[in-house]
Amino acid sequence: xxxxxxxTEAWAAFQQNFFVGWAPVAIFIMATxxxxxxxxxxxxxxxxxxxxxxxxxxxxxxxVVYFIIGFPLAYYVSAPVFGLPQFIPTxxxxxxxxxxxTGAYGLPxxxxxxxxxxxxxxxxxxxxxxxxxxxxxxxxxxKFWGWILxxxxxxxxxxxxxxxxxxxxxxxxxxxxxxxxxxxxxxLVGGTLALTxxxxxxxxxxxxxxxxxxxxxxxxxxxxxxxxxxxxxxFGWFGFNVGSSVAGDAMTINVxxxxxxxxxxxxxxxxxxxxxxxxxxxxLTSMVGLxxxxxxxxxxxxxxxxxxxxxxxIIAGVITTFTIGFIDHKLHxxxxxxxxxxxxxxxxxxxxATGIFGYTALGAHxxxxxxxxxxxxxxxGIQAIGAVAIFGWAAVMGLLMFSxxxxxxxxxxxxxxxxxxxxxxxxxxxxxxxxxxEDK
Length: 440
Description:
single chain, mainly alpha, two-stranded antiparallel sheet, 16 helices
């Protein structure tokens, strides 16, 4: 058995705690309770239970499928674009990355050398976050089992391919593409899938009126519930961004984490401010702006200056407000809960902003920033290439997946179910049963 020196063992224990401790648990709360409450407050009373179930049950099968297929596709493949995994399912080795290449405590070395279970648990949280984004685009008219199958498809194939390109040593990683915490990998994928799902499933009954398809606003039933969900998402985002560090050595921790925490908070603040001023202080739009800022900073959280983060957030808040109107009034797509504007549009902006604000002359991180003009300009181009590639993959796969579900009548609820409300029509329950009681 390998003998460990105390320093190595202590650092390995810290790394293990970083991979499976507070950060991924915070993401888990974000991906489940955060999305469930945020979305539930934004739908009408008759669809609250259904909306919560789509989040709470959607991640379960996706979690298992990611263990069996998704993680191996992302991290056990050596081909730059796509290939067959060397191992299926995820290797059941509990050692952290620091010890997985050599083995310890009588446990053998992992053939992958990446700290399989620890890394899987951490990355599984990112996978279910991607899954959690999508139901918002199809809200108030989607079928339960169709969504469960879609969630498995996302976690088992669509998302892991992009994850491999960026974080698993694939072609975008090879050309120097930067996405620290998932503006592209998570949010651009999730937001694009939500938009394609909304397009294929069609608008809610009564959403667009007349020959000119004038959009109607369907008001959510509880702004306080959505505000609570948004702040749970914001809490989880610190685990999302801070937890994205590979924690490979003490230097990485010491030069990254304070920077990442501050840029994340600054960009959230900017996003909320930007959305508030462009919506004349609308509460829910302001909370959406908070999340837009959080999405936009994921890519460059370890690079851009904190004050640049505030500027990126303001722009993200403005982008969100105007993209919501563009999708409604120009594209006539019923992205019910604004998933594309927040996650995809601001994900693209975040990827580009990483290059634009990553120049050290603009205050970028002195170690991670770009020190010469040539590298800086080149990086902006690399970020744009990555954004186009990720959007293209997610759009094509989303259209294909949701069209297949529609073909087999698994995507959309019936007209009567939609009009009556999915809670009682499908699940035979109500979020607010007192509304059905007669006054005594």
